[in-house]
Amino acid sequence: MQEEESLMTESGLCKTGIEELDIQLGGGIPTGSTVLVVGSSGSGKTTLCMQFLINGATKGERCVFFTITEPLFKLTKNMEGFNFYDKKLIESGMVTLIDLRIISERLGLDTEKYTVEDASALLDILRDIADELNAKRLVIDSITALCYRLQTPEMIRDFIFKLGSSLAAMKCTTLLTSEVPPMTFQYSQYGIEEFISDGIMFLGDFERKGDLIRTFQLVKMRGAAHSRTKSAMSISAENGIELAPLLGSRE
Amino acid sequence: MANVLIDGLKERISNAIKINQSIGILLPSSNYTDLLRAMFEYMHSTPEVAWVYVTVTRPYDTLAKQYEFILDAKNIRFIDCISRAAGISTPHPNCVYVESPTMLEKLTLEMMNMFKEVDESTNKYLVIDSLSNLIIYNDANIVTEFFYHIVNRTRARDIHTISLAIEEEGLEKHLNRLIYLNDKILKVRDSFI
């Protein structure tokens, strides 16, 4: 019985594969959660998300990356510089990369503004893709660009809520990137995304003697006893995202 | 005279390393070059030990030119914290460059990553050259916090640390606070060697 419980606990968490982050999360993200990855341009949102997917795919989980902010060739070109990036996982279909703008075009949707029907059609297609691929990890990069096409706060709320609920039912853990202006302490452009998400990871930076130090903070994670300490974040070709204790953070 | 000094330093370093986990070496700037030679010769003479040498004082290129034997030493790896800021970054398999000596968290990660590649049964040593130079580039309180982290992390992983501190006017208060975190202090004076 005890063994069964520990296995259940183990299977209830989705390890990011980023060692220090999993420690901060108390093991991993609760499976099926929808997590907002917040940061300004160049803060490392896409890299963190891709590392999360690649680490999952390496363990045998199927993953999907929906991009709406940059073409696929640019995305893969940027990722090729990282040691964690394994092209074979893309070629074998363990990680599927999809340009959401192309899907919108094929669905005959207005690429600038979605009607309620458009949003519903897009939601259906996202759910179908995740279901067909039996995806266990999914990323939308970025939810901000998608929300821009949804015309009212109600549509944004409804879209994220329905997407999150469907993916949670599939036990698919989802990361949504959220773009915010630099040096600000806000979690989203529309002020809605953070309330519907189960978790928030905040990627920021601060200046020390003229150098910009990247920071990472786990603001919220429903269902996890997690750390809320701000860490220093490093992005390198060799190790991708790494976290270290932030010095001078108590000042 | 210089050889006597270097031999004396080597012997003192060798004896201290045998006994203790972490050693702080406090020295006047006039002895720095001799100590550096003594350190590198000692490191080179212990191929069974894995050394990670953090330089905040001289660029790796300069050290490699001065002590050519370290170029081929497979047991010594370097982390250079000052070359990038000075616009030098000649790639070398033995050396990792940190953008700036103010990037202390990045430095911590690079140190620990280097030791992760070393076999668990191998004796591991970390040399920080130097605490005094870190204080020049950073706030003294942050360097203290950094050094606390390093000492605790390395102790937990059975990594021995040797930290150098060059005596400089105005830094005594900070250096004393830092150096006494070590298990043993070596105060280098010409007359003691």
Descriptive overview:
The complex is a heterodimer of chains A (251) and B (193). Chain A has helices at 2-11, 19-24, 45-58, 72-79, 87-91, 100-106, 116-133, 143-149, 153-169, 193-196; strands at residues 13-14, 29-30, 34-39, 63-67, 95-99, 137-141, 173-179, 199-208, 211-221, 231-236, 240-245. Chain A has one domain (28-204): 3-Layer(aba) Sandwich (Rossmann fold). In chain A, a hairpin with a 3-residue loop joins strand 10 and strand 11. Chain A has 251 residues and is an alpha/beta fold. The longest helix of chain A is centred in the middle third of the chain and has 18 residues, at 116-133. The model of chain A is unreliable at 1-9 (pLDDT under 50). Chain B is of the alpha/beta class and 193 residues long. Chain B has one domain (2-188): P-loop containing nucleotide triphosphate hydrolases (Rossmann fold, 3-Layer(aba) Sandwich), CATH 3.40.50. Chain B is built from seven helices and seven strands; from the N terminus they run αβαβαββαβααβαβ. Chain B has helices spanning 2-19, 32-44, 60-66, 104-116, 131-137, 140-156, 172-179; strands at residues 22-28, 50-55, 76-80, 95-97, 124-129, 159-167, 184-187. Chain B has a seven-stranded parallel sheet, sandwiched between helices. Chain B is globular. Classes of the chains: A alpha/beta (251), B alpha/beta (193). The interface between A and B is medium-sized, with 16 and 18 residues.
Give a short synopsis of this structure.
Chain A is an alpha/beta fold and 251 residues long. Chain A has helices at residues 2-11, 19-24, 45-58, 72-79, 87-91, 100-106, 116-133, 143-149, 153-169, 193-196, and strands spanning 13-14, 29-30, 34-39, 63-67, 95-99, 137-141, 173-179, 199-208, 211-221, 231-236, 240-245.
Give the helices and strands, then pairings.
The complex is a heterodimer of chains A (about 250) and B (about 190).
Chain A lengths: L1 H10 L1 E2 L4 H6 L4 E2 L3 E6 L5 H14 L4 E5 L4 H8 L7 H5 L3 E5 H7 L9 H18 L3 E5 L1 H7 L3 H17 L3 E7 L13 H4 L2 E10 L2 E11 L9 E6 L3 E6 L6
Chain B lengths: L1 H18 L2 E7 L3 H13 L5 E6 L4 H7 L9 E5 L14 E3 L6 H13 L7 E6 L1 H7 L2 H17 L2 E9 L4 H8 L4 E4 L6
Parallel strand pairs in B: 1-6, 1-7, 2-3, 2-5, 3-4, 5-6
Helix pairs in contact in B: 1-2, 4-6
